[in-house]
């Protein structure tokens, strides 16, 4: 699997190394720690998923007009770029079938597979235990209290309920007038408002918002540049993340590996957008979403459906959500 490599990765590593100095020069991080208290109570572990409801699911179902279904997940293999040092491979086995004709008088044969890899690869959901601020995570949970080598005892991906709600696609490539946006292009509050107005859609509380940039074109055979794809990206800026948090969305995703803009905006910390969404507001992040067909069809609102594998204590999960119009 192609990892985060190249000059851009070196720049990101430098940012990570200088982050403590950045925090110190900006007052040592968050003076206001009110974000550590969830509006859903001290025991809450699902964050913005509390906004989901049967009413939202029914309203999303009412958006279905012709039943066209869009797969939003990448086909995953060992060549898909992943944030270093993540990787994957599979092994195909035929247990108990070597040197014989199979099992029983019907000679039954079968194939099994072993997956060896990280769960935060390809199309994925970031759970609320993924990103924190100085080892403090969503709802004030301290990493030393719940993070163990064999799984998290809080905020695990198994806690996330099925996400069935209205989905909104914002075509940022169209907004900026480019078939594929360049790395470093940030989606600000103003950009999001303008793109939504141009498309005639309103972002509402309880929505899942997806961004289309065309960045996945870099993984197509004819234009493949996995190193560029996996080291920089256009993406959500800080004011854009704050705006979506104010609205009260459930999840935010994009057709990029890390959702937020990289190189980071001037004055913005390392993966600070992740902190704003996950740690501070309990909003899930969906990465490497396949949005090209939605954008081509101008399907800007749809029924969004996601039911991830419920692996107890996991931080992230490989996913293949669907959009239905």
Describe the structure.
By secondary structure, the chain is an alpha/beta fold. The chain has a single domain, classed as Glucose Oxidase, domain 1. It is built from nine helices and 15 strands. It has helices at 7-25, 54-61, 143-146, 172-176, 189-199, 226-229, 238-247, 272-281, 292-296; strands at residues 69-71, 88-93, 112-117, 124-126, 136-137, 141-142, 163-171, 186-187, 208-212, 235-236, 251-254, 284-287, 301-306, 316-318, 322-324. A nine-stranded mixed β-sheet has the order 1-15-13-7-9-11-12-4-14. Strands 2-3 form a two-stranded antiparallel ribbon. The two termini are 34 Å apart.
Short description:
This protein is an alpha/beta fold. The chain has helices at about 5-25, 55-60, 145, 170-175, 190-200, 225-230, 240-245, 270-280, 290-295, and strands at about 70, 90-95, 110-115, 125, 135, 140, 165-170, 185, 210, 235, 250-255, 285, 300-305, 315-320, 320-325. The chain has one domain: Putative cyclase (Glucose Oxidase, domain 1).
Compile the SSE list and pairings:
Blueprint: H1 7-25, H2 54-61, E1 69-71, E2 88-93, E3 112-117, E4 124-126, E5 136-137, E6 141-142, H3 143-146, E7 163-171, H4 172-176, E8 186-187, H5 189-199, E9 208-212, H6 226-229, E10 235-236, H7 238-247, E11 251-254, H8 272-281, E12 284-287, H9 292-296, E13 301-306, E14 316-318, E15 322-324
In total, how many beta strands?
Answer: 15
* Order of strands, widest sheet: 1-15-13-7-9-11-12-4-14
| Percentage beta strand | 15-25%
Let me know the CATH homologous superfamily: Putative cyclase
């Amino acid at each position: 699997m192609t990892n985060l490599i190249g000059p851009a990765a070196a720049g990101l590593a430098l940012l990570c190394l200088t982050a403590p100095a950045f925090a110190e020069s900006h007052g040592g991080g968050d003076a206001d720690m009110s974000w550590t208290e969830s509006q859903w109570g001290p025991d809450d572990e699902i964050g913005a998923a509390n906004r989901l409801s049967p009413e939202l699911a029914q309203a999303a179902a009412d958006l279905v007009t012709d039943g066209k279904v869009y797969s939003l997940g990448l086909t995953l293999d060992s060549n898909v770029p992943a944030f270093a040092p993540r990787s994957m491979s599979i092994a195909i086995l035929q247990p108990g079938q070597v040197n014989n004709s199979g099992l029983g008088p019907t000679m039954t044969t079968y194939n099994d597979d072993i997956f060896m890899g990280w769960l935060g690869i390809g199309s994925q959901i970031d759970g609320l235990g993924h990103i924190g601020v100085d080892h403090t995570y969503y709802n004030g949970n301290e990493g030393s209290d719940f993070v163990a080598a064999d799984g998290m005892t809080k905020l695990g991906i198994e806690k996330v309920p099925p996400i069935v709600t209205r989905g909104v696609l914002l075509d940022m490539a169209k907004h900026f007038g480019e078939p594929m946006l360049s790395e470093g292009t940030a989606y600000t509050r103003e950009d999001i408002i303008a793109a939504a107005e141009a498309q005639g859609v309103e972002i509402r509380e309880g929505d899942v918002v997806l961004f289309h940039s065309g960045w996945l074109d870099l993984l197509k055979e004819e234009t493949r540049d996995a190193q560029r794809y996996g080291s920089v990206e256009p993406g959500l800026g800080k004011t854009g993340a704050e705006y979506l948090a104010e609205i009260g969305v459930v999840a935010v995703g994009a057709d990029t590996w890390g959702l937020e803009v990289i190189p980071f905006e001037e004055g913005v910390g390392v993966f600070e957008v992740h902190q704003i969404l996950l740690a501070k507001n309990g909003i899930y992040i969906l990465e490497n979403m396949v949005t090209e067909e939605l954008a081509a069809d101008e399907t800007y609102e749809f029924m969004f459906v996601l039911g991830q594998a419920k692996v107890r204590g996991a931080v992230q999960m490989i996913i293949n959500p669907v959009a239905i119009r």
